[in-house]
């Protein structure tokens, strides 16, 4: 049986980080208390079916933060309350997210790894 974090990294394609988000950068201001390690999912209404992505993220065993941007309310899995509005938009802009969904693995408030694109169950592919 794999460790939950390892499963998440494998599902997202640990060696395929291809994001514009800068690794090592601190997260911009946000409304949640920071955890030692956490996952931040930034998504929009036009990301398509994120069921498999949410499943992989929720199975990681890490705290999950949902950031719903672009003004159209889109649900997150049960138990998660998405952050929405102008401040959530600013958060994504400050991170320089280029493609949604974006998944950030964060350790002690700093971005450890990032993926942007379309989740297909085996990893993220760069969005076009």
UniProtKB/TrEMBL annotation:
UniProt KW keywords: Signal
Signal peptide: 1-19
Protein name, entry field: Penicillin-binding protein
Source species of the chain: Deinococcus wulumuqiensis
């Amino acid at each position: 049986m794999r460790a939950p974090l390892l499963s998440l990294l494998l599902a997202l394609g640990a060696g395929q980080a291809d994001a514009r988000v800068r690794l090592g950068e601190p997260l911009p201001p946000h409304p949640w208390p920071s955890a030692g390690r956490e996952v931040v999912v930034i998504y929009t209404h036009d990301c398509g079916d994120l069921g498999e992505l949410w499943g992989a993220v929720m199975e990681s065993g890490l705290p999950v933060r949902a950031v719903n941007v672009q003004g159209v309310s889109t649900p997150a899995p049960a138990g998660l309350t998405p952050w929405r509005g102008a401040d959530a938009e600013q958060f994504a802009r400050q991170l320089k997210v280029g493609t949604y969904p974006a998944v950030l693995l964060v350790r002690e408030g700093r971005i450890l790894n990032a993926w942007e694109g379309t989740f297909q169950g085996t990893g993220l592919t760069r969005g076009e």
